[in-house]
Model the fold of this input.
Amino acid sequence: MILFDGKLYQTSEQTRLLEEMEKRVTFTLAHGRLSPDTVIEAIDRLGRMLREGELDEFIVRSGLSELADRMKGSLSLLSREYLLHKMKTELGEGFFEPGETRAVAGLRGVRTLPMPLGTLFHIAAGNMEALPAYTVVEGLLTGNVNILKLPQADSGFTVTALAKLIEIEPSLTDYIYVFDTPSSDIAAMRKMAEMADGIVVWGGDAAVRSVRAMASPGVKLIEWGHRLSFAYISGGWSDQTRELSALAEHIIATEQLLCSSCQTIFIDTDSMEELEEFCRGFLPVLQKARDARPITDIGAAAEITLKRYTASLEAAMTGSAASSREFSGRMCGLTICEDSAPELSEMFGRPLVKRLPRERIPAELRAKKGYLQTAGLLCPAGERGALTELLIRCGVNRVTTAGHMSAGFSGESHDGEYSLRRYVRIANAEGAD
Done:
């Protein structure tokens, strides 16, 4: 489905609608200015309707009940309090209010005019259900016109939520366009990219490279690529059972599909025997978390089984099995590896386990600079400060407790940056003498 002019259209209407868009977008940018207060009021209203059950019947009719249940813990992101704090933290108090510079080098009366970037073309990833809608929300908060290309796996939530937002606040109509264009339709994507002042791309290296090739030289690229996250365990500490349980629950709850999901568990040791001892103790904890959250999707279970079987065949043919050891459970497991590099696991409850003595942290992590996101740190309280600083100095952007690796919080940065700052520009205007 396509969301255009506040109405839903069939995908077959895409070519005609794209032909109309440039004129519409140009008119909006030339004649309108979206107030952050208007956007925040509309989003807060949508959040309250979801929290209070006013949209339950609508959600059931749309076939999104299961998804809505999974997202209940994230509804605080749609509150006025959260959004105001986000704006203040990322842009500062009164960011969009015009200012005036001091007289320098003979120039007087030069005004600073904070502005939206203009039009944002969002190419969303499908690893998190609410992500496509939320990237549009960030574009709206900064006053931009937003063109969204849905990921192939979108459930229908994005169009449903954004259409409801327009119904709540009709003035948002000209600032939201959603297309279910496949990535193979290069001509349509180029058409959308040509209208953009900035392209926001979510995805892996291949997606980022293809967008770079598509973008015109003057277009700002805003890349939110895939990231690697891991847990780091050092020494003995209090509440060890509770923290390991929290780590296992995090791994299973996210299925290791998010950038903030734990892919590798590093142990502060150089001993393979200690890795084996850890796995023997942690596998039952991981299994308990899996049993509490079984994989109910038959297709997903079949895919995991096929991947595991294929990997075992490849390992047997290449001899790579000799460099790893499996601790298998029911639809979960641990793999001990001989190297110490952060890397992507097989996901779906199958983290890697590796040695990483703290003196080798800089060399191993710096080899993945630019890809590191979250470290879940399990260590004695007295060592937490020093280890946190070391991890951050080596390129990690977030250090959390084991169970909070994927938890969001108000005022957090995104991969080391405040995203709203990337969606605005500062204009200057000199007054007449």
Q: What stands out?
A: The mean pLDDT is 87.
